[in-house]
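hi! just following up on the protien thing from before. the input was this:
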Amino acid sequence: MSGVAGRGPEVRSFIGETDASGEPRSTARPAPDAPALDTPAFDALHRPLRDLRISVTDRCNFRCVYCMPKEIFGRDYAFLPREELLSFEEITRLARVAVANGVEKIRLTGGEPLLRKGIETLIGMLSVLKTPEGRPLDIALTTNGSALKHLAPALKAAGLHRVTVSLDSLDDETFRTMNDVRFPVQKVLDGIQAAHDAGLGPIKINMVVKRGQNDADVVAMARYFKGTPFILRFIEYMDVGATNGWKLDEVVPSAEIIERIDAELPLEPMGANYPGETSARWRYRDGGGEIGVISSVTHAFCGDCTRARVSVEGTLFTCLFATAGHDLRALMRGGCSDDELSARLAGIWRARTDRYSELRSTRTAGLTPSPTGGARRIEMSYIGG
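and the predicted 3d structure came back as:
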């Protein structure tokens, strides 16, 4: 099938082809008759498959300037029809097969996942899945927080463990400008509190920092959430896709963020919680909690990346910066067995060599050219962060 216009690159049901730039999309083809696996799958760089991020909708009620800018995703933008989306049963089936191949964490993303009608039902279906060792899955969800105040209790009751909330400023005018639909910051703060009251924690707060737009709010954000149960994380403005008009001079390096905060609220580094953690952790020296920085541009963490992503219509991507995906929906709707689906999933992961951020950092001066050779990358609005 072809990629949806404005969303992502061309999608195929197999790998081993070349992309628009003539470069190979993968170095190996998964064997179609490979046996199903009940043990962790490792990629070509010996990274296990541990974390699956599933987009449940391509729709969002915000038009954030770094993700779904209004000039691209306007009133007439054609989102996917419902029949194109994976059903809850298909999502659960895919998750079950992924768990058999080593996945321990499921994160639901979008678009805005709380716009998917009946999301609590899907969470309930996923919550009964167990790892081969009998452990429950870690089920999380990333949201803009706009509907969280009303849905938090039902999400918790369905089996959701924790949420991550995007919040790019505490200044109401800056926040309204960045979400570009004039949504007030207080309603997101109310949603965060409701999620905390419902027991959806630890709650993480993600702030994408864009120079000249909200970087002046970094210390204010740190001060506000210091001493609370919430973990604030600062994310470098990333070159995902093409619709956000990314420029290097709009990136605030994580080292600068830490320096700004440390000057007023002294920090010290912490160790990672687990291998493959995306966020570098820092704690306040006075015991007031911790913050994190996600350095997707200035400090690549590809070496221990254990994440795969599934788009809303069932395309598997092995990197956030991918230029090609693998159509699993066609396989499922074509009547494949679970063993066949497992073999395809494991084969794709075994062939994985992705390390976009490392290549960008080592091949380029100033991080400006793309190591994909100009091939069109997937949009964050299509695959989730």
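The first helix runs from residue 88 to 100.
The radius of gyration is 20 Å.
cheers
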